[in-house]
Every structure is written in C-alpha cells, then in structure tokens.
Amino acid sequence: MSANSRLTLAAHALAWIGLYQRQGHEVATSEQIATSANTNPVVIRRLLGELRRAGLVESRRGVGAGWSLARELESMTLLDVYEAVEPGPLFAMHRTTPDQGCVVGYGIQPAMQGIYEGIEETLRHELARVTLENVLRDVLAAPR
Amino acid sequence: MSANSRLTLAAHALAWIGLYQRQGHEVATSEQIATSANTNPVVIRRLLGELRRAGLVESRRGVGAGWSLARELESMTLLDVYEAVEPGPLFAMHRTTPDQGCVVGYGIQPAMQGIYEGIEETLRHELARVTLENVLRDVLAAPR
DNA sequence: TCCCGTTGCAACCTTTGCTGTTACGACTGC
DNA sequence: GCAGTCGTAACAGCAAAGGTTGCAACGGGA
C-alpha cells in the first residue's frame, strides 16, 4: 500500500497549533509548523486548507496572519481529520472492469464492495475514538 | 490514500481457482485468471507468487502446469491474503524526520505509532473474520 | 498611502509505487 | 525434442504525493 502520511502530518499540525495557543499565542504560521514538521510551508498550507474546508481550523491574512483552531482539541477526532484529508476508499476495486461474462468477474466487485464497507465502518469507529486532545497528551508524554 | 487493488485482485484470483477446482479441474492457469480479471497474466503470476510464499497456493510447472489452492477456502481469511500482498503499515509517518528539538516534533511519531498500532490491530481482526469461502459465496450470490 | 508579512493558489518537477508489457530461461509431461 | 506454462527480469506508462518557486491578495501599522 502506498502508505500515506497525510493523516500523520495533519495531526502534527493540529497538535502544534493547539499547544502554541495554550502557550498564549493567537495564531501559528505555516512557516513555524513547517519547521517543526521538517517540510515546506506550502505543503502545510495545502493541508491546513483542507482542514479549514472541514471547519477544523481558521486562517487570518494580512499582518499578524496565521492559523488558529476553530474548535477545541477535545471535540476533534482523528475521524474528522481523516475525512478531511483522505478522499478515497481504503481498498480499491480493479483498475479495469473484470470480464462480466465470467461468474467471478461479474460477482467479485459487489462482493468485495460489501465486505469493504463493513471494514471501513469499523475503521471509522476506531478513528472516532481518538481525539486530538488524546494525541497531544501522548505527544507530551513521550519520554526524554 | 493511494488506493490499492492488490487485495481485491488476490481475492478474485483465489475465488476463481477455488470455483474452478470445485468444477473438477486440477489447476488453473494465470492466463485464465487474467482473462477473468481483465489484466495481464504476468500481473497474476506476480501476485500468486506472493500468495505461494505465504502458503496459500501452489504452482506446478511443465505441461499441464498451473495453480491450485494449498488449503481450503474456509481456512483462508482476508487477513492471510492482506498480509501476503500488503507489506507496509496502513498509515505512514512523516517522510522526513520532524524537528527533534521541538516538543511536538519529538513526541508526534511515538504518539501516532501507538495509536496506529491499535487501529491496525482492529483492522486485522476485521479482516480475519472474513474467509475466502465467504467471499466466494458473496460472489455467487450476486443477482443477475 | 505605502510597506511588510502572511495566506491562497497555480504551475511545475521529482520521487515513488503499481500496473502493464515484452522477453526469455526453466521446468516437465508427452 | 517439443509444447505449454511458470518464474522473473527489465522497462515503459501512469497516477498520486510531496517539494519548490513565483506571485497576487489581503490587511494591519507606519
């Protein structure tokens, strides 16, 4: 599976903004977050843009601009973040339509479709159990 | 997520071989399976090679060669197939190591690591609940 | 009114992984 | 020896993600 770091990076950004705000700052810049994540500010802006569309963060422009949380970390779950940054399904069907004249080729897609739906529902449920507050607590609990 | 059709294709191939054997045939060829899946025989051989390494199928060479199941479909689960064809973890960490001098950059990877492990364990449990026999039954149950 | 720092966004390149394709050697029953 | 199939390497094509550059838009302050 082409492993995807978008969820990790989004959680990183949210935890960073949340911690920064608790330290008394109003907004965080993509530059600061990019430094922490060791990547490019544009990558952060793109990702935070998706989170903004999902209502998780807000952005201000002009002087003293930057990003702030739209909700408390306690009320954000990894499922919210996952849905904001991961569009497609977990498992894909065939690239090309199987032979519809073959019994297996005809029935395989509806069969796997149904199975995958149940599995993804369970995945969503698991993701919904973890709040960004949990994430930040785990981050701060890392032993030095 | 770069959606991955390997699990779907592997399930297709196993269901095809299983059904073919129940119809009284000894072995199935990669050519036949490729026709059903509407792809290239080499793609099928590569994938079945991974399933062979996992002990799910066997192959014979020479005249009258082909593939056969190494176990009954009832004793194979989607987890067996998943582990055979999907090497990496479901969610990836950052591409580049985050800033270890930053509290969040330092703690984010162990934090997400622990969270992801729990989620993947649940995913494995779900995959283990579905046997290839279930898959074949669903395939044959597709309405014409 | 101008300046400055930041977001918003488009365009492009590079890398990576999967898939498709061709080619050919290895094997085995006849 | 022949024919049919696997086993595998090599390469091209394609798509997605990430990285990079460039620049317009915004808005508070001087």
TrEMBL record, chains A, B:
InterPro entries: Tscrpt_reg_Rrf2, WH-like_DNA-bd_sf, WH_DNA-bd_sf
Pfam (any one): Rrf2
SUPFAM superfamilies, per database record: Winged helix' DNA-binding domain (SSF46785)
Protein name stated in the entry: Rrf2 family transcriptional regulator
